[in-house]
UniProtKB/TrEMBL annotation, chain A:
UniProt subcellular location: Cell membrane
UniProt KW 4Fe-4S keyword: no
Membrane topology: Multi-pass membrane protein
Signal peptide residue numbers: none
Spans through the membrane: 6-26, 38-57, 63-81, 93-111, 158-176, 197-215, 221-238, 245-263, 275-294
Organism domain of life: Bacteria
Stated name of the protein: Metal ABC transporter permease
Native source species: Ruegeria sediminis
Keywords, comma-separated and alphabetical: Cell membrane, Membrane, Transmembrane, Transmembrane helix, Transport
Family membership: Belongs to the ABC-3 integral membrane protein family.
InterPro entries: ABC_BtuC-like (IPR037294), ABC_TroCD (IPR001626)
Automatic annotation (TrEMBL), chain B:
UniProt entry keywords in alphabetical sequence: ATP-binding, Ion transport, Nucleotide-binding, Transport, Zinc, Zinc transport
Signal sequence interval, chain numbering: none
SUPFAM superfamilies linked to this entry: P-loop containing nucleoside triphosphate hydrolases
InterPro entries (alphabetical): AAA+_ATPase, ABC_transporter-like_ATP-bd, ABC_transporter-like_CS, Metal_Ion_Import_ABC, P-loop_NTPase
Species, as recorded: Ruegeria sediminis
One Pfam family from the record: ABC_tran
Domain ABC transporter per the UniProt entry, residue ranges: 22-254
This protein's record includes keyword Nucleotide-binding: yes
Stated name of the protein: Metal ABC transporter ATP-binding protein
Protein family (similarity comment): Belongs to the ABC transporter superfamily.
Gene Ontology MF terms in the entry: ATP binding
From TrEMBL, chain C:
Name this polypeptide is given: Metal ABC transporter permease
Family per record: Belongs to the ABC-3 integral membrane protein family.
PANTHER family listed in its UniProt record: ABC-TRANSPORTER METAL-BINDING PROTEIN (PTHR30477), METAL TRANSPORT SYSTEM MEMBRANE PROTEIN CT_069-RELATED (PTHR30477:SF3)
Organism: Ruegeria sediminis
Gene3D superfamilies on file: ABC transporter involved in vitamin B12 uptake, BtuC (1.10.3470.10)
Keywords, sorted A to Z: Cell membrane, Membrane, Transmembrane, Transmembrane helix, Transport
UniProt-annotated location(s): Cell membrane
Topological type in the membrane: Multi-pass membrane protein
Amino acid sequence: MSGAEFVPLSLTPLLIGIFAAVACALPGNFLVLRKQALIGDAISHVVLPGIVVAFLLTGVIAAWPMMLGAAGAAILAVVLIEAIRRLGKIEPGAAMGVVFTAMFAGGVLLLEQTDTSTVHLDVEHALYGNLESLIWLDASGWSSLLDPEALAGLPVELPRMGVTLLLVILFTWLLWRPLKISTFDEGYARTIGIRTNLLGLALVVMAAIAAVAAFDAVGSIIVIAMFICPPAAARMMTNRLERQIAWSVVFAVASAVSGYVLAGYGPLWLGGTDAVSAAGMIATMSGLILALTARFGPCRSRTGAPSQA
Amino acid sequence: MLELATSEGTTVAPQDLAASPLAIRGLTVSYGQKPAVFSVDMTVQPGAMTAIIGPNGAGKSTLLKAALGIITPLSGQVTVYGQPLDDRRARIAYVPQRASVDWDFPTRVIDVVLMGLYRELGLLGRVRARHRATAMDCLNRVGMRDFADRQIGQLSGGQQQRVFLARALAQDADLYLLDEPFAGVDAATEKAIIAVLKSLKQAGKTVVVVHHDLATVTDYFDHVFLINTRKVAEGTVAEAFTAETLQATYGGRLATAQIDQISRALG
Amino acid sequence: MLWDALTLQLGYNATLVAIGATLLGIAAGVTGTFLFLRKRALVSDAISHATLPGVCLAFMVMAALGGDGRNLIGLLAGSALSAWVGLLCMNWLTSRTRLAEDAAIGSVLSVFFGFGVVLLTVIQTMGVGRQAGLEGFLLGSTAGMLWADAMVIAAGGAATLALVMLIRRPMMLVAFDPEYAAARGLPVGRIDLAMMGLVMAVTVVGLKIVGLILIVALLIIPPVTARFWTERSDHVVLISGFAGGLAGYLGAALSASAPNLPTGPIIVLVSFAFFALSLFLAPVRGVLAAVLRHIRFQRRVHMRQGLLALAQGQTIYEPLTLRLLRRAGLVRPDGVPTETGKARSAKALRDEKRWELVRADQAHEATAALYDGLRDIETVLTRDQIAEIDRRIGGPQEVRP
């Protein structure tokens, strides 16, 4: 395939897909180890009410208000879950189920009540995104990467996702040591002066930011696959956290690339004419990778007893 | 002198406590509506090896966790070397119960011991050869040098406990707090741990251990702290570890025969 | 308008939806209780999302065979099949690999859903000619519900309910203590699977009304709501079924009473309103009751600690303790105890001594277990027993306030 075709049509969605997958997989490693994988589930469901409220408040479909709205909704959800868990003495899974379904229902209701016919905001788009639409029409080939005029026409999602990824990497690098210690042994972490509550909240906020940024491209439910599948697959490959992180990045990139390519060209190979959902295919590929590692990974079985706490 | 739960409340002026590695005043902790620890005072003697003793559910571990700020007490104050806990964290090392962590966590023995150097390494400090050497030395002291590269889940219970102890040693603290280190470990581990603890005492460190085996108290410890929700007695083994205090601590839960046996052992 | 809706006078379709939603709410509330008590509430989230590929595949198969791709029974059968596959995948991941249940739930949920989305796009481009309308299964769509659809939902809901009632005892045993149940010889694995099968049945039945994303709300929220009102498991089941049914009925009626009120989300929000009310107002387990109780408890602790300190002539530093003692007229503003204060503190100290003896005495073992540092000894011992203990303490007799 020539650059003239690849650069405008495929380069940006592919990059956005990769960035989104990696940005979610990094915090996902810690969520999975902390047995909080479903926080990702909860966060991603409440992104919808968050952006709807942001739209209602500002009246425009703009990136930053929506990011803020969604991040706000994620924090609200986490606080509510924690409050219900503690105040009502309800187990965390059920508390999550109560909060994110109710908030999601609220979001759908608000959306139905609002006239959004003039703007591109609908439930299905929110659920599974539209990665293919994030194309770079100003590009004419590889040379456009050096052309400031063409670069100005890049879809805004690309720099946004790139910045988010950088932020996630910075967060993981800076707080690596306390994150590792408090994930392994929270009580001990507290005795050496690590603010574990604050750190836990920061991790959730980071995950929420990644989810919100990725939401545009892949929608709110497929994001969950990016949070959980690459780290879970990486878990089957190694017994060291550093290597697990590296594997999870490899798997995230592999799912994004193979998913995007298969969605775009797979149907053609099979004699079809139209592409299928790239986001859905990325999730499917990440699941396939997880299935393979779960069956053949060298470290797929448990080694020690899970904690009783 | 035997002292049956006397001093109450947050009532002792802080300046009296400066010398104690760990001083607790009027500590009450409750889970729900039932206090697990009620209005407890404790003054740990510097350079001593103290056992916290009491029946199951008497609040032993709770006392330790509240003293370390892992759980929030309902009332009371804790000072470490005369200062609030947060200013003195560097001088405390804690060995939690083995069951409190996920042993399937992807990490090696040496990495766990290096966690003990967190305060020294900070957020981004590089792990250098000397840090590694310190960690290996600590592993050596608990007899686990050969296991440095193992994944922690591959260890036996006793070995896991020794790794936890090595991590605490790496902190090079002055006060060591251990929560049931001998629970469910093999005899070799128990011996190794007690040898390390005794060497810590020799080096002038203070050791506090939540302990459940009454038979070994006189061999291992020089001070005891008896608790059953409230403090029952505190002092040297000779003063406070008597048939009378044990009866008061365990009540009906300790067979008279056991108490007789222990008091005979005490002479 | 709302009144008409509530009395089922808004026409044929609205009535069908209301009846269907009520039955669904009851079935989901009852079934969800076992899931909730088993602490596996979110397994339902994986099951429900895993229905999507099945719906799509069923549609494709039926369309390819020349039939009507939208036949509800066929679609539901397909969804049940793929949900079952999802469930087996999840069980395999948790039992055969090191993954914990939360990661297994999340991965099955998202991967199956993602694959379903791929199939949805395939169907859109399949050239079947008409809009398949399968998106309706995501959030439910009750517009144009047919009599036959309502019958399927009603029959499915009733059958599920009957099955739950049939195996409720073993399910409750497993939910309460799986290890004990296993020791009793119950096939815990099979009962768990049956529980999940019932959850799957509710999910499939509910697809048409609330959709696969929100059906978990009907399974989770009513049991959580019910738990606030009772400590008995059989009552949780009943209350949960009632709350679920009522939410289904009210939600369907509300949504029929005005435009742009989608049925599924409204039912969920009504259910959540019940939950919120219970969370705050329920006696004993509600937040309001708990806060009041905690404040009372904290005061008792401080009061007692203060009295004991007074009795031993120690200075009190804790401001709350001092304030409480002052307000009760037990100390003067300068911290010196009043006459009443002296009497009460002497009594507190004496009680403490009595407790000490009680707790050291094997004969009083049951009583000693009640000790919490706060309880008045008169409430657990008879006058004669106290007199006996006082004789053993000796010394001056009790000071009466």
